[in-house]
Design a protein that fits this description.
- The protein has three domains: 112 residues, no CATH class; 53 residues, no CATH class; 63 residues, no CATH class.
- By secondary structure, it is mainly α.
- The C terminus is likely disordered.
- The protein is flat, with a radius of gyration of 22 Å.
- It has 13 helices and no strands.
Length: 250
């Protein structure tokens, strides 16, 4: 299941407004009247999607409720940075189905309400993702600060709002096929587990006891960070401890 790519949504909004012959003034008037905002850069993800859907509706048939719910679910999954495995696991466990398209409208609404109730990852997580992306793209600190100053009129990442951080991250992500922060944290956890000689059974027991989950792929980034921080201070086991893999494990 592909997440919504908001750089593509914004590009499509440009295409549709140009096709309809809208002026900047017409767009500003529409945004002010419908969202109380004067620029599309101030819109939330749901508002951007709603705006694009409105532009489509000017000349196209109204999308079904089923299609609208799926689109909004994809927006929420991107906000929460759910990976494909997490979405499929949830659908299987709660609805015994493997795809959003197989859910009824009642099930889609139930899933959407569940996602909306989940808190957005802390700003620190978003900043960490941006740092990962800019480093992989080879950006210097000056380049990053220039982008922040030119587009958000602020002098550092720490001063950006949640929406501005998401907007910046969405700009960076399509430029690179780099691993996500989720994947990087999982890779680091693997290294620490190998260092400590942990078995799969030890890991499952720890995850079940502390997070109520049976696999590290189901952990959120906050939980992965917490797990990594737990593993890192642990001393490398001695030869005697290695001979007994369960030594010291509760």
């Amino acid at each position: 299941m592909e997440p919504v790519n908001f750089s593509e949504v914004i590009a499509q909004i440009d295409v549709e407004t140009e096709r309809l012959g809208w002026t900047r003034e017409q767009e500003r008037e529409h945004l002010k009247r419908n969202y109380g905002k004067r620029a599309r850069t101030l819109l939330t993800e749901l508002e951007l999607l709603d705006f694009l859907q409105y532009l489509y509706l000017v000349s196209q048939p109204t999308p079904t409720l089923h299609e609208i719910l799926i689109a909004k679910i994809k927006v929420e999954m991107q906000r929460l940075d759910w990976i494909t495995d997490q979405g499929q696991e949830h659908l299987k466990n709660y609805y015994e189905k493997r795809s959003l398209t197989l859910l009824t409208e009642v099930e889609l609404l139930d899933f959407l309400q569940y996602l909306v109730s989940q808190p957005t990852p802390p700003l620190e997580i978003l900043i960490a993702k941006i740092n990962v992306e800019t480093e992989r793209l080879g950006w210097t600190t000056e380049q990053r600060q220039k982008r922040v100053k030119n587009y958000y009129e602020k002098r550092s990442l720490s001063l950006l709002t949640e929406f501005e951080l998401l907007h910046f991250l969405q700009y960076l992500a399509p430029q690179s096929a780099s691993p996500t922060l989720h994947e990087i944290l999982i890779a680091k956890i693997k290294v620490e587990m190998q260092r400590l000689g942990w078995t799969r059974e030890q890991e499952r027991e720890h995850l079940k006891k502390n997070y109520g989950k049976r696999s590290r792929t189901l952990l959120t980034e906050v939980e992965l960070l917490d797990f990594l921080q737990y593993l890192t201070p642990q001393a490398t086991p001695t030869l005697d401890e290695i001979s007994d893999p369960l030594a010291g494990f509760e």
